[in-house]
Amino acid sequence: MNWFEAIILGIVEGITEFLPVSSTGHLTITEKLLGMEIDSIDVTAFTAIIQIGAIIAAIVYFRRDIARLAVGWFKGLFHADQRGTDYRLGWAVILGSIPIGLIGLLFHDVIETTLRSLWVVAAALIGWSIVLWVADRYSAKLSRTGGRRDPGHSGLRDEQSLSVVDAIIIGLVQCLALIPGVSRSGATISAGLLRGIDRTTATRWSFFLGIPALAISGIYQAASNVDAISTGVGWLPTAIATVVSFFVAYASIAWLLRFVASNRFTAFIIYRVALGLVIVALLLFGVISAV
């Protein structure tokens, strides 16, 4: 892999990691267009490793929130009288992050091979758009009506009302993001909206639940595929793409949080469907191959 390709892939990762459009799907498409073997060990490892840059960006951006939750959780572990909201939310992050780790380990081979097909990416992009559309409409309805119990007031819940059960359910749905094209943030945000959580909180928790899962995945791939990276795409391009993804992802996070505060996800839904249909057309006409 040359430096230009590494920079392009780092930009793609940074832009798409936290948007509900699927970073893995976009990386797979871009890698294919650059002439790479998208199901080869070094390419799949590269795809996971450069996510570390985006995750570090999220850690830096939310450093105060992460520190607050960590302190509250540790205090609550040893002092029962300190078990407040931050202690509960700390457990929510931990327990909500476990499902995707277990599923990722159990189905690692399938995820890295069979699911890397562009047919899968296209189907997931279009299919999950329907879920995101339903969740978006449901959230908008709650915001307007306030639900049955309290008509006239917003029925959406904020971070203070988030429960461990909410986090586990969102974490379980996050497992579907192991399918390229679904989108980890798209899955978690959709689950949050369907649980009646407001857009900003659902988006913030897509970051919090993604940090442990993606960090562990990237570190695991780096440690277990040292030789494959060395003889394949190369460690220097991998490092360049990771650094680029950090800076681009930091800007993407700031933009997304401002966007969701006052906008619905319609633009993302339209984009996902359009991209999925373009991929289907390219595959049907033989312009590109599925793997």
Structure description:
There is one protein chain. The protein is mainly alpha-helical and 291 residues long. Helices cover 74% and strands 0% of the residues.
Termini gap? 18 Å
Query: Can you tell me the number of structural domains?
Result: 1
SSE string: HHHHHHHHHHHHHH
How many whole angstroms does the radius of gyration measure?
Answer: 19 Å
Q: Which shape, going by the Cα principal axes?
A: globular
Class by SSE composition: mainly alpha
Low-confidence stretches: 148-153
Find the count of extended strands (DSSP E, 2+ residues): 0
List keywords for this structure.
mainly alpha, 291 residues
Provide a short characterization of the protein structure.
The protein has 14 helices and no strands. By secondary structure, the protein is mainly α.
Produce the secondary structure layout.
Elements: H1 3-16, H2 23-33, H3 41-49, H4 51-61, H5 63-78, H6 85-106, H7 108-112, H8 118-145, H9 164-174, H10 184-194, H11 199-224, H12 226-231, H13 235-260, H14 266-284
Helix pairs in contact: 1-2, 1-13, 3-11, 4-11, 4-13, 5-6, 6-9, 6-11, 8-10, 8-14, 9-10, 10-11
